[in-house]
Amino acid sequence: MNPVYRCIADDVVLGEDVFLSQFINLYGCRIGSRTRIGAFVEIQKGVTVGNDCKIQSHSFLCEGVSLGERVFIGHGVIFINDRVPRTVNPGGATMRDGDWAVVPTRIDDEASIGSGATILCGIHIGKGAVIGAGSVVTKDVPPGEVWAGNPAKFINLRGDR
Questions:
Q1: Which of the listed residues 19, 26, 142, 161 has the most CB atoms within 10 Å of its CB?
Q2: CA 157 to CA 161: how far, in whole Å?
Q3: What domains can be seen in the chain, in order of their start residue?
């Protein structure tokens, strides 16, 4: 039998019936019930994931990200939490916690983010919005809208399926 490789810190809060693939890294986060997390996903401290979400493989949810209920995150989606990333402070010393500010990002219920998208920090993606694969989201996305491109722009309103 093959061993299962997961790094799940003691401070992770998991809801009921959460599915966790192999090769994941979770610490200091909250994962809602019935959520599915694919392989090679990292979810950092302070992240909240609602119930019934699906996070596909190779995605990165950094500190400051909050997902509502029934959110879909495609393969290889990257979130960013720092407006001006640097390795050293103005004095030349290596930056540590407290030398920079986490900029929160909120994804509302039933939003879908396509594979390979990058979501800049400070963004709010509204309920039921859709982000196209490969998009770079640099602005807030209103509820029910479809956005795509680099930078992502309004395409149309989400239609019924």
A1: 26
A2: 12
A3: 1-161 (2.160.10.10)
